[in-house]
Design goal:
Elements: E1 4-13, E2 23-31, E3 35-39, H1 46-53, E4 65-67, E5 70-71, H2 77-81, E6 84-87, H3 100-106, H4 115-128, H5 144-157, E7 162-166, H6 174-191, E8 194-199, E9 210-215, E10 218-223, H7 225-228, H8 232-237, H9 244-254, H10 266-278
Parallel strand pairs: 3-8, 3-9, 6-7, 7-8
Antiparallel strand pairs: 1-2, 1-4, 4-5, 9-10
Helix pairs in contact: 3-5, 4-5, 5-6
Length: 280
């Protein structure tokens, strides 16, 4: 892909204590400015892939990973990391500052910025995620959704070009999850960031430009949400629960309630049902 921000080619990886490969000749591409969501059951290799992309695991497959046009290696990993913002599953594992502002500022301390410039970045980042009013709060007093917004502010303050959400919504209630994902989409549209989201929940793929389904260390399915989310049998075979709207759509079709073919989001499904019953 000519405009790829991430290129992975024939990447294989095996943990020393395992007999089988965790990643087996994995290839994928992520376009600059896009949103790619990777889904798959536990053990499919998602977390290992993220650790390799961010240099938390050593990549022994030479030239297998490129980010920002550079091959990831021992010599380039530190420079590549400067462009990546990582939001983890449990934000408590990322907090190091006594206040929200201190925590957002932590990553800026090695960038040789003046105190005034750092404070400006912190305030701008917190304002962008709707958390400026919590500037002096202790992180422990925040809700799960608020903590993830602060973690997101930390990567925004760094002006990260690539944001990786590694199961970042799994500890948030459904309303908070939708709110956080909508916020990420809004920020992506505003700042042109590339988003790589990793989850086991197919419901989190709706905002993506591309879905990659991983299974047994490789990419089993790849395509736009409208293409992947109608692969009922394949998704079930890979241990992925179908979206609620898709399940309802199938049940309605079994009752001979005619609906448009293809994938319908919950909003589209409700709209179609409203149109059907308003005609009666």
């Amino acid at each position: 892909m000519a405009d790829a921000l991430i290129e992975v080619k024939n990447l294989s990886f095996r943990y020393a204590q395992h007999d089988s490969m965790t990643l087996d000749h994995l290839s994928l591409s992520v376009e600059k400015g896009s949103w790619t969501t990777i889904v798959g059951r536990n053990g499919s290799g998602k977390s290992t892939l993220i650790k390799l992309l961010t240099g938390l695991l050593e990549n022994k497959s030479q030239d297998a990973i490129s980010l920002f046009g550079r091959v990831l290696s021992e010599d380039t990993v530190d420079k590549i990391r400067l462009h990546i913002g990582l939001v983890l599953q449990n934000p408590d594992n990322q907090f190091v500052g006594p206040t929200v502002a201190d925590d957002v500022a932590f990553g800026l301390e090695n960038l040789d910025l003046s105190r005034g410039h750092m404070e400006q970045r912190v305030k701008e980042a917190l304002e962008n995620v709707g958390m400026l009013d919590f500037y002096d709060w202790e992180p422990a007093r925040l809700s799960g959704g608020q903590k993830q917004r602060v973690a997101l502010a930390g990567v925004l303050a760094l002006h990260s070009d690539l944001i990786i959400l590694d199961e970042a919504t799994s500890m948030i209630d459904p309303i908070g999850r939708q709110s956080l994902l909508a916020l990420v989409k809004q920020l992506q549209n505003r700042f042109g960031m590339t988003i790589l989201s990793v989850t086991h929940d197919i419901e989190e793929t709706f905002l993506a430009d591309q879905i990659l389904v991983m299974d047994h260390g490789g990419v089993a399915l790849q395509g736009r949400p409208s293409q992947i989310l109608i692969e009922d049998q394949a998704l079930s075979g890979f241990g992925i629960e179908l979206p609620l709207s898709r399940t309802v759509q199938r049940d309605l079709l079994a009752l001979s309630i005619a609906l448009p073919s293809g994938y319908l989001s919950e909003e589209e499904l409700i709209d179609q049902l409203w149109q059907l019953y308003s005609k009666k």
